[in-house]
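Appendix B, record 7
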Amino acid sequence: CTGFKGSVAAAAGHLFDFPDPNQPRKGCVGDGPLLTRNDESTKIPGIFLVGPTVSHGELVFCFVYKFRQRFAVVSNAICEGLGMDTAAAVAESRR
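Structure tokens (predicted):
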């Protein structure tokens, strides 16, 4: 940990809820924003986050090769939110 305020909290903190600072942290990203399973803000629907501050449980997507795989999750959520059927595209990409 560097001790610096994370870029999400500094630049877009008003768009996200954050964990209680009095709770134990999970490493350097323990104070990262709270997200849904689709990496969407729990505070403002339609705001998504992809990057090194994304974590789910014990999974931390801190390197580009890890968080890059989350683009598909976010894209799928956005398309479904727009009423698009993504089943065929998701099935194709899994082959």
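Remarks on this record: The chain has a mean pLDDT of 82. Strands lie at 55-56, 59-60.
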